[in-house]
Amino acid sequence: MILKGSQRSGGRQLAAHLLKTEDNEHVEIHELRGFMSEDLPSAFNEVHAVSKGTRAKQPFFSLSLSPPPNERVPIEVFETAIEQIEQKLGLEEQPRAIVFHEKEGRRHAHVVWSRIDTDEMKAINLPFYKMKLKDVSRELYLEHGWKIPPGIIDRKDRNPLNFSREEWQQARRAGLNPKDIKRTFQESWAISDNRNAFTQALLSKGFVLARGDRRGFVAVDYQGEAYAIARYTGVKAKDVRQRLGDPQTLPSIEQAKDKIAADMSKKLQQHLSHAEAIKQKRSAAFEFKRQRLVEEQRKERQLLEQSQRKRWDAETKERSQRLAKGLKGIWHRLTGKYEKTKRQNELDALVAFQRDRQEKDELIFKHIQQRQQLSLRQRSEIHTHELEIELLRQDIQDYRNLKTDKPSILKEEFRKASEKASKSRKPKRIRDKTQDRGYEPEI
User: Fold this and answer.
1) Which of 43, 117, 193, 382 has the greatest number of C-beta atoms within 10 Å?
2) What is the CA radius of gyration of the chain?
3) Residues 389 and 272: beta-carbon distance below 8 Å
4) What is the pLDDT of residue 158?
5) Where are the domains of the chain?
6) Is 92:86 a contact under the CB 8 Å cutoff?
7) Distance (Å, whole) CA 361 – CA 355
């Protein structure tokens, strides 16, 4: 499990943070050891008061223990790990508090020790505690057969997920098909008998008819790419001029780009607003589901706690009734039956304690799984919306660049790819091996 520790002060703020239920679905004080007080804020106030008799400015050592996300880690594993850390850092027998948090379907623990040695009235030094915690963390992963994260092996192997702009452009380029573009031009030409009809036919497919640089007709697509009408329709240039008339009355390529950029930016802004509204709506819906699930889980835990307490009281009463009283009790003590019954009661109490703890763990694991499933659906759906929003914002920026006539990265990539492809298609020169050997070619 991941271990993160720090020396710190501010016991009041630390206690408030550990007891904060706004950020955690469930908060449980598992243990208070070595304190006179029975609540967390008062216990930390004790440490703060004792530290006034020393020079220590950071009387607390705070540690978080985060197990792997999909592992079912019982309380005993946390307790064993905490004992190992205590021995490693030299904090044995120091006052400590253990608090369990559950957040987004995951359970983790916080441990806070007092660094003040009351016998010598000084703070316990913790040299190289980060390295020691990393060693314990690695041992825990190996001991329990958990998959070791790259950061535990070597920090340089950390691999955050990043999606570059070029990768998304590559994904969008995969949808471009020159054959489809050519068929679109030919179909639009076939159903049109004049310029207006051809203009509307192209416009319905996302192309704007414009004037080319050489007095020809071109169509500009929504990405700002220009296509020669004669070439893509397969019609002679004079036949194109005969049907479409004088190209000088059409907008230039730059004017067409400006119009496309303005229209597309407006449309994409509408899509962006709609996508952001859907994301907020879905986030609110998931938050409502999360709160309702947390309330249901808290009720289940309260019912289990009440049921276990009631059963524990009944079993305790039953065990106490096994011990005879009066003269019979004296006889049982003399014969040794009393001690035998007492040991049996202690064993039964231990078994009952372990049973109750296992039942509690099973319920917690069930709740964690429920929360993980909800959190997984939430992250997946929200992540999809975030990607859609990011792509829309990138597209809007691309159209702003198109309107301001900034160089297109996409065009530059196409140009480089075309040059590379043309070089690879050049025929290689074949040498005549007979000339190398001094032979004359036959006539």
Assistant:
1) 43
2) 38
3) yes
4) 31
5) 2-157, 173-250, 260-403
6) yes
7) 10
The tens digit of pLDDT for each residue in 102-135 reads 988 889 999 999 999 988 889 999 988 988 998 8
Residues of the chain with pLDDT under 50: 153-175, 407-411, 414, 428-443
- The token duo for 41 is 């804020």
Size of the chain, expressed as the number of residues it contains: 443
Q: What is the pTM of this model?
A: 0.52
DSSP 6-58: EEE--HHHHHHHHT--SS-SEEEEEEEES-S-SSHHHHHHHHHHHHTTSS-S-
Q: Hey, what are 163's tokens?
A: 């999606």
- pLDDT, position 79: 92
Q: Closest Cα partner for 65 from 8, 125, 4?
A: 4
In this prediction, residue 351 carries a pLDDT of 93
β-strand 2-8 against 217-220: which pairing, if any? Answer: unpaired
127 φ/ψ sector (left φ>0, alpha ψ -120 to 50, else beta)? beta
Residue type, 23: D
Q: Cα 347 from chain centroid?
A: 46
Name the helix (H) or strand (E) containing 113: strand 106-114
Query: The CATH number of 2-157 is which of 1.10.287, 3.30.930, 2.40.50, 3.40.30?
Result: 3.30.930
